[in-house]
Amino acid sequence: xxxxxxxxxxxxxxxxxxxxxxxxxxxxxxxxxxxxxxxxxxxxxxxxxxxxxxxxxxxxxxxxxxxxxxxxxxxxxxxxxxxxxxxxxxxxxxxxxxxxxxxxxxxxxxxxxxxxxxxxxxxxxxxxxxxxxxxxxxxxxxxxxxxxxxxxxxxxxxxxxxxxxxxxxxxxxxxxxxxxxxxxxxxxxxxxxxxxxxxxxxxxxxxxxxxxxxxxxxxxxxxxxxxxxxxxxxxxxxxxxxxxxxxxxxxxxxxxxxxxxxxxxxxxxxxxxxxxxxxxxxxxxxxxxxxxxxxxxxxxxxxxxxxxxxxxxxxxxxxxxxxxxxxxxxxxxxxxxxxxxxxxxxxxxxxxxxxxxxxxxxxxxxxxxxxxxxxxxxxxxxxxxxxxxxxxxxxxxxxxxxxxxxxxxxxxxxxxxxxxxxxxxxxxxxxxxxxxxxxxxxxxxxxxxxxxxxxxxxxxxxxxxxxxxxxxxxxxxxxxxxxxxxxxxxxxxxxxxxxxxxxxxxx
Length: 507
Fold this sequence. Notes:
single chain; alpha+beta; Beta-Lactamase; Hypothetical protein af1432; six-stranded antiparallel beta sheet
């Protein structure tokens, strides 16, 4: 129970001054009244005098209290009532002026806070409905809700398709270096998040240092402590009652979170989950549609087989491996990997503009024909750029990776590629990744003008071109995930590959 306290305005200087003025005013009225209506005898014998004095003071005090009642209670309540009616009619942003420290002022503060919360949530819903990208929506939440909730860091982790791995998707922080960054992943069974996901209930840890002392094996807690975080609130992300991941609000202060924070943050978590799912769905639909067009175009060439599927999977494997390199960790986020997945298959979309006489020629191209073939990079980039410009600003970055891949996937690290002869890091990373995947698949695949190279030969050529045609870091990542490359190769073999070595791979 709360301690009983004197009503604040009873102790205020303004109140005491007003009360003193009332008494003085009453005395003045009494003097005037006594001079006009009371005889000398009434004044000498003070009973009647006192009765009149008390009556006048009572009337004045009642009038004064009535004034306070109207000013401090009735008027503010009336303002709240009017504001609530206007809010019910759709005008959510209503702020009532506050004065004083009494209970009514506290009620007005709560009302104003509620109004600001409703406005922020309404703006969040509008952003989602208007088609804002998930990243923009996440940024809006991080920037806009600190006035309601104490946090210095926001993070989100999602489950993979098999619901066995949980992976950090995105994180934002108040200028602190993020150690637990996008791409960090663990088997769900080895994390304490398993309970949050299975129960669907939020979790508050108000002393992460103590939690880590009791759970010294928690690598994720160790990383978050390195960011200066002391307390955390974790909420399940639900779409249609299915938990797809978790949302973290974290503070640099201990004991930052109360259970009343959970109620409000549940709304935010649900909206972010919808935004994330919507973004994934739209991205997959758009990229899937373009991939379907590419497959249709490549059906002109029976020898390409499952080329685009292998290039996509090789590229994703390389990107994931490269993300473990500290140099690329800030760049290769989960969104980046999804874009590699979506857009690496359409690296050759520009070939729709190349004549069959050149595209399907069974022997090597002449120099003139090769110059025409090289224009497929420019054609593909132009198609995707026009599509990108037709999108909302928040979605334009989504297609930028596709444009880069289509335009630059034939550039070489030594500057001897095309269309522009870019060199080294001037070539976008996405294109440097897809280049290795594309060439490896071209080497191991049959073409009208050549047989398929063996795996041994293909790996040797990739290694030989490290630092020449290919980015050394990308080549190193390629060999670091060699087992995954071989698994993809075996899984997506073309029908013509029937000569296998003792390990089950093409010679």
